[in-house]
Amino acid sequence: MSKALKITPDQQFEIINVDGYQDLSEAVEGMLTSVPSSRDLTVYVNDEGRLYNMPQNKSIQNLTKYPYRLVGNALVMGPIDDEGNETDVTPELVKLAVDAADDSGLVTLCVETFEMYGQASNS
Question: Is residue 76 within a helix (H) or strand (E), and if so which, with residue range?
């Protein structure tokens, strides 16, 4: 199971657990595809989002600098490891995503991030 940052088009941020294709697909509400980025991260969006007229996701567009319009929910995870598996989103990646957006959803995200990462570093 991996931790991912879900970003909706209305810039709501939520850290979720994903375990395989089914969870990834449910989070982006359909078939998924990865989005190339110059950053060391993995981003998934709905592959058919534009066909279904899903709203633009400006946060993920700003984060990835992808040249084409990205729509619908997006998942941000860590880079793919040597075995081809997704890795957990890190606090640094969460900060990059928040910096690419405005501050809506930030309070909830901060609490979730502290609960997931702050507790572990205090152990």
Answer: strand 74-77
Alpha carbons 51 and 49: distance in angstroms, whole number: 5
Residue 77: helix, strand or coil by DSSP?
strand
Amino acid at 119: Q
- CB contact at 8 A, 27 and 20: no
- The DSSP 8-state label assigned to residue 48 in this structure reads T
Matching residue, tokens 């992808």:
66
> Are the beta carbons of 24 and 18 closer than 8 angstroms?
yes
Q: How many angstroms separate the CA atoms of 60 and 98, rounded?
A: 10
pTM: 0.82
Q: What is the pLDDT along the chain (123 residues), one digit of tens a residue?
A: 899 999 999 888 899 999 999 999 999 999 999 998 888 899 999 999 999 999 999 999 999 989 999 999 999 999 989 998 889 999 889 888 888 886 555 545 665 666 665 554 444
In angstroms, rounded to a whole number, what is the distance separating the alpha carbons of residues 108 and 87? 22
